[in-house]
Amino acid sequence: MLNNIKSSYFFQILFSYVDESQKLKIIIHNKDLQNKINISLFNYKIFSGKYIIFEENNKNIKKIYNSLSDQIIVRVEHLNDKVKEYDCFGSLIFEGEYLNGKRNGKGKEYNHYGKLVFEGEYLNGKRWNGKLYDEDNDFLIYELKDGKGYVKEHLLKGRSYEGEYLNGEKNGMGEEYYFSLIYKGEYLNGKRNGKGKEYFGRYLIFDGEYLNGKRWNGKLYTNDNNISYEIKNGKGKYIELNIDNRFLFEGEYLNGERNGKGKEYNIGSLIFEGEYLKGKRNGKGKEYYEDGKLKFEGEYLYNYRLKGKEYYNNGKIKYEGEYLFEFYWTGKEYDTNGNLLNEYKNGSGYIKEINDDGTIKYEGEYLNGRRNGKGKEYYKGELVFEGEYLNKFRNGKGKEYFKGELTFEGEYKYNKRWNGKGKIYRRGRIEFEGEYLNGKKWNGKSYDKDGNALYEIKDGCGLIKELEYEGEYLNGERHGKGKGFSLNSGNLEYEGEYLNGKRHGKGKEYNYDGDKIIFEGEYLNDKRNGKGKEYYDNKIVYKGEYLDGKKNGIGKKYFKNGKLQFEGKFKRGKHWNGKGYDINGNFDYELINGSGKMKIYDSDDVLEEEGEYLNGLQHGKGKDYFNGQLEFEGNYLNGHRNGFGRKYENGHLVFEGDYYNGYKFGKGKEYNNNGQVIYEGDYANNRKLVKKIPIKEGKLDIDFHT
To answer: Is there a contact between 431 and 438 (Cβ–Cβ < 8 Å)?
Structure first.
């Protein structure tokens, strides 16, 4: 079936966030769609939710991209029988053996900071035999044998799991945390399955049974412990909360999924109401802006708009016609005044893209819903590029501009300067002219302000002077001694050593004006690593060790008056073990493993935080300051305001009440500048509650003051 579909445009659409079976259904049941779209799979491979590009000169290296944002997710290098994976920041996250495209055999996993978190054997992409360490390799957390064991693992953004593992997955009893407990119960094959309870802060919100990760039988409770609704066999009225435990959905459920009529919310604001099928928007529906104004009305298919009308916030029609996934397909687009702007036919035509503020973003040719052919890009009304496009990317000949001045002309591929001839301009004169190879300057000359040849590179090697760099080149990259300059000001930012295009070795960083050193020391892979010194107004404010760009290891921190502020051990930028002093040099506090009483000062030596800490985070009683004035005092838990607290503005008490994970949550009072109470009641996620949550008798039982 895929052989009948031919176009790189539709290929990326194909791998949007819809599961594979539904993608195929969309294609199979839309013969008209198959006839309209041209697809060429060339270097792409099928990967659900993603697409893959192999490097032209090295088929052993592939990059996996998010198909909607076109941002790289992971870079995979195949070296003989071993594989290395890198995250979107270029950090090594895995090295080991692969089989059939999955981790199989011996391997090691690392976090973003380069710390070992797992070492052992994998089976079909799952951890099977090995040891998991804490984020700093300080101690062993757990050991897996044949995919079985008791696990404590830290996931992303405050999420964690503690419980039983079997076959390399969550199986048995376990607990999930998002800074605090959010679920406790049974698992099967990595999903909630069996009896379990969900929590929202200190409130129980669901108690019952799960099936394949979905609530199946049980009761949902309001924040005053009253039963809100009951679900049986995955059917009934339902409510959902998102990852931050914020109200998300209310409506009908069938087989544990959204089916029938329902409503979606964003922090209390209705954003969609309409029909659902198998968890997706399907059928008639309406979308709303957060201020309640109609944004779209029409038909949906598998969460995508199919046909309808889209509106500006002022009520004027923005677009009317057919859609193909998120793209305008056949219809008319209007400006904010109701004037015809574009007319689409099968996603093609001469199109103008407009920003929300009415300024132009792009004008040029479209094919299959994307930029294809000649066009121009604008930023805040100013031209920044004109040239050729292919499948929305700059591809072919083009020119770049900055504040009305030509800065580059040459060849592009996937939005990057690529192969062929190119010229770099600065203030109307040529700064570099030559040839590029795979996006790198390869052969050419640099010129001074009078047009005289200054440096020359051959086969990617030699000396070069360009807008942001002056120094040695090797294989088309910064390599050796050089200087880096600010693109905007032209001032010196860095001077020192480079390796393969990155700061590596000894170097110095300068302030915005380029006339004062702010750091000197050692670098590794573009980050401060090793020994170094920080300066403020030419005075040393830190002297010690770094790791991955942060203070890490033994070091001393100073006030601007030269007095010692802290001495001891740092860990990932935080004070960890050592002694702290006041601005007069008197002993003030002592920390052990990031725990104890502490004070934090800003770069102007003004107090920012003080109180009790645990593992480098505010924990217990503490205070926050803004520009030296008290902003908050109260209780903290793992770095977040938790429990009772008071908030101040310009010295006046403006709120006192309960907090949870940094949000106002529970009982609270607000005051005006005269100290008078202007509101007293319940809060959830910083919003004032009028009624209890969640739904009751099929209606949303929550509202917010504006």
So the answer is: no
| Pairing of the two strands 687-689 and 92-99 | unpaired
Write the DSSP symbol of residue 226: -
> Helix and strand tally (H, E) in the chain?
3, 59
- pLDDT at position 12 is 37
State CA 160 to chain mean position distance: 18
613-684 CATH: 2.20.110.10
> And the tokens for 71?
């941002």
DSSP state of 319: E
Name the one residue in this structure whose structure tokens are 């040891």.
131
Nearest to 184 by CA among 197, 166, 171, 195: 197
Are 80 and 96 in contact, with CB atoms under 8 Å apart?
Answer: no
Cβ atoms of 97 and 106 closer than 8 Å? yes
Six-digit token string for 477? 């990259």
Q: Do 94 and 106 contact (CB within 8 A), yes or no?
A: no
Integer angstrom CA distances of residue 534 from 331, 486, 510, 599: 59, 20, 10, 20
The total number of residues written for the chain in this structure: 706
Say how far residue 481 (Cα) sits from the centre of its chain: 34
Structural contact between residues 15 and 51, judged by C-beta atoms closer than 8 angstroms? yes
For strands 640-649 and 294-301, give the pairing. unpaired
Question: Encoding tokens for residue 179?
Answer: 């800074």
DSSP, residue by residue, 358-405: S-EEEEEEEETTEEEEEEEEEETTEEEEEEEEETTEEEEEEEEEETTE
Beta bridge partner(s), residue 425: 430
Residue 84 and residue 96 in contact, taking contact as beta carbons nearer than 8 Å: no
431, 463, 435: which is closest to 447 by C-alpha? Answer: 431
Helix, strand, coil percentages in the chain from 3-state DSSP, rounded to 5? 5, 70, 30
553 and 544 Cβ atoms separated by less than 8 Å: yes
Q: Which of 402, 441, 401, 399 is nearest to 418 (CA)?
A: 441
130 and 94 Cβ atoms separated by less than 8 Å: no
Q: How many CA atoms lie within 13 A of 274 on its CB side?
A: 24
Q: What is the pLDDT of residue 42?
A: 30
pLDDT-flagged residues of the chain (< 70): 1-75, 77-81, 89, 113, 134-141, 154-158, 179, 201-202, 222-225, 241-247, 689-706
For residue 588, CA distances in Å to 157, 281, 475, 578 come to: 33, 59, 53, 11
- The 8-class DSSP code of residue 137 comes to S
* Ordered strands of the 50-55 beta sheet: 46-47, 50-55, 58-66, 72-79, 82-87, 92-99, 102-110, 116-123, 126-133, 140-144
Q: Residues near 71 by Cβ (< 8 Å), separated by ≥ 6?
A: 65, 88
pTM, 2 dp: 0.68
Per-residue model confidence (pLDDT) at position 52: 56
The span from the CA of 260 to the CA of 313, in Å, is 28
Q: CA nearest 202: which of 590, 665, 653, 664?
A: 665
Q: What distance in Å separates the CA atoms of residue 551 and residue 572, rounded to the nearest whole number?
A: 6
702 vs 472: CA distance, rounded Å: 64
Lookup result for tokens 């040239």:
387
Q: How many CB atoms within 10 Å of residue 277?
A: 16
Of 514, 515, 520, whose CA–CA distance to 486 is shortest?
A: 514
Dihedral (CA of 368, 372, 375, 377) sign? positive
Q: Are 621 and 635 in contact (CB under 8 A)?
A: yes
Domain layout of the chain by residue ranges: 268-344, 613-684
